[in-house]
Amino acid sequence: MKLTNMNQLLKLILTGILILCFFKMSFLFYRFSGYILFAGFGWLAYDAFQRQDQWDVKIFAILAVLYNPFIPFPFPNFLWLIINTIVIIGLILNILFAEDNPYDDQIKKDDR
Predict the structure, then answer these.
(1) Bigger pLDDT: 112 or 13?
(2) What 3-state class would DSSP assign to 68?
(3) Rounded to whole angstroms, how far apart are CA atoms 3 and 1?
């Protein structure tokens, strides 16, 4: 499986986890989802750094900090719902409008 397909799958999984956060779940689910979201957005930020895509690095790094489970932000529940909605819409748009293979440009630059 190509790395771009794995990143798209990861974005889809993160979107699903964020959608599940709208339902009434146990505290353990929210705690575990924080770790998954932190690791997933951290990986996407690292991959964007490898692709030298500065916008994606900034966005995914901010999301990794926002969803970090170690020092959580004490936002009220309604604010988390708004943030999750914005992130879900952003991830879906990112999935829909992603380049076919963003690694082609990097390979062409290295071959010169």
Answers:
(1) 13
(2) coil
(3) 7
